[in-house]
Design goal:
MetI-like fold
Length: 273
């Protein structure tokens, strides 16, 4: 059997998926033990016991200064900013993407602007956002919106333009106006594409969030990582990075499950994987 035709079973996929992580854990353990053997006070690769102590301190013990559980306070602050930025971006991307894809007049007007904005590195305008919107929550949310919204718009515009012309003509033949075609014909077919596009932009959204928090914030996962880096506290930084990864993975999984349950026809055989 050719390798390209060989499909692993469900249990084998789980094992193969865990294998790289097991290898990384083994490599880290060996490297940490070697460094700590030479220098017991080394902070670059802390022992697993140091991680355990740091997680206990950050997640389950109140801060001596504020009395808050820092990990959960940081998580709540970051998720609030992220969900707000991604949610607004998805709404704007859906509306403008469908309008641009369906209406040539609007596409000729808005597409050049959307393309130009999408080519601007969001990090380059971060100082401008802080000057215009201040150092509060709005500037961080705006950074996420500017970073991912043009991508969503362009993706949904292309999805809308790729719909079969026969469907649009048939709807017009049956007497549907532009609004009815947009709601009843285009929107149901574009929504699963929106969920997929949001999944693909989650990594960028996290990047922009952490960058904004690192520069101007008093709480948040990115803020905490950049605050404690000055102390070389890798026993706190690495668990925070892993926690961000877990949150991003959970968000991606939730969106994937919603898409499969709500739009099984969109996934076809891929929905079974």
């Amino acid at each position: 059997m050719r390798l390209m035709n060989s499909k692993p079973s469900r249990s084998m996929r789980i094992v193969l998926g865990l294998l790289p992580f097991i290898i990384l854990v083994v490599i880290y353990t060996l490297a940490s033990d070697a460094r700590l053997l030479d220098n017991p006070s080394d902070k670059l690769l802390p022992a697993w016991s140091s991680f355990s102590d740091a997680i206990q301190r950050m997640a389950f013990e109140p801060s001596r200064r504020t009395g808050e559980y820092l990990l959960w306070v940081d998580t709540a602050a970051s998720l609030q900013r992220l969900l707000l930025g991604v949610g607004i971006s998805a709404l704007i991307g859906l509306v403008i993407g469908v309008v641009n894809g369906l209406l040539p007049l609007y596409r000729a007007t808005l597409s050049p602007l959307v393309t130009a904005i999408s080519l601007i590195p969001p990090m380059a305008i971060l100082p401008i956002l802080f000057i215009v919107f201040g150092l509060g929550e709005l500037s961080k949310v705006m950074l996420i919106i500017i970073g991912i919204c043009p991508i969503l718009i362009r993706d949904l515009q292309l999805r809308t333009q790729s719909l079969p012309v026969e469907q649009l003509l048939k709807a017009q033949t049956l007497g549907a106006n532009t609004w009815q075609i947009m709601i009843r014909v285009v929107l149901p077919q574009v929504l699963p594409a929106l969920l997929n596009a949001v999944r693909l932009t989650l990594g960028s959204a996290w990047l922009f969030l952490i960058a904004g928090e690192a520069i101007a914030a008093t709480e948040g996962l990115g803020y905490r990582i950049f605050l404690i880096r000055r102390y070389l506290a890798m026993d706190v930084i690495l668990p925070y990075v892993v926690w961000i990864t877990i949150l991003a993975f959970l968000m991606d999984t939730i969106l994937r499950l919603i898409s499969k349950r709500a739009f099984p026809w969109f996934h076809g055989k891929r929905g079974e994987e």
